[in-house]
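lol ok so funny story. i was supposed to be doing the assay writeup but got distracted and ended up predicting the structure for this chain instead. priorities right. anyway since i did it might as well share w the group, maybe its usefull for someone
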Amino acid sequence: MKKEKHKGYAAPIVITVILLLYIIFYFGVLIALLPTVWKYVLLIIPIALAGVAIYVCVERIKEIRSGVEDDLSKY
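and the output, tada:
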């Protein structure tokens, strides 16, 4: 039973990693093309997005651990 529960961890982690790679690539190219002043201003956006993505992934893993496999069943 425990092995079946660990299957639910893969999807949120994989999606989070893909999202973080996309954010890093997109904003990395954008920041590389901009003047120096804008680089520091726009650096805040990807850091905030990455933080939110990681927070949501951690919350989803907590839900899976508590036994909430299907969020749609609530609605």
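The helical segments are 2-33, 36-42, 44-65. Residues 2-33 form the longest helix (32 residues).
back to the writeup now i swear
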